[in-house]
Design goal:
Strand 1 and strand 2 form a beta hairpin. Helix content is 19%, strand content 18%. By secondary structure, the chain is an alpha+beta fold. The chain has helices at 34-43, 68-72, and strands at residues 5-11, 16-22. It is built from two helices and two strands, in the order ββαα. A two-stranded antiparallel sheet has the order 1-2. The longest helix has 10 residues, at 34-43. The chain has one domain (5-72).
């Protein structure tokens, strides 16, 4: 979901492979990012949750933000 893309990433100086997941963040303050969700689940000791080494929301222009939430509130939707 959310235009998710995944691939193997390689850290050349440590010769380690990692799983890289890229997805669109839902444009609502009340929705946690996937990275934050993984961090909280790991801190709570939940089993079978992948360890997230790093996460961030990439800054974007208004044209690149998802519009689903705003448009779903329109009378015609």
């Amino acid at each position: 979901g959310h235009a998710t893309q995944a691939c193997t990433a390689y850290k050349w100086h440590s010769h380690k492979k990692f799983f890289l997941k890229d997805s669109w963040h839902i444009n609502l303050d009340s929705i946690l990012s996937k990275g934050e969700m993984y961090r909280r689940l790991n801190c709570a000791g939940v089993c079978n949750v992948p360890t997230c080494l790093a996460f961030m929301d990439v800054p974007s222009m208004a044209e690149q933000k998802t519009q689903t939430v705003q448009l779903s509130q329109k009378s015609w939707s």
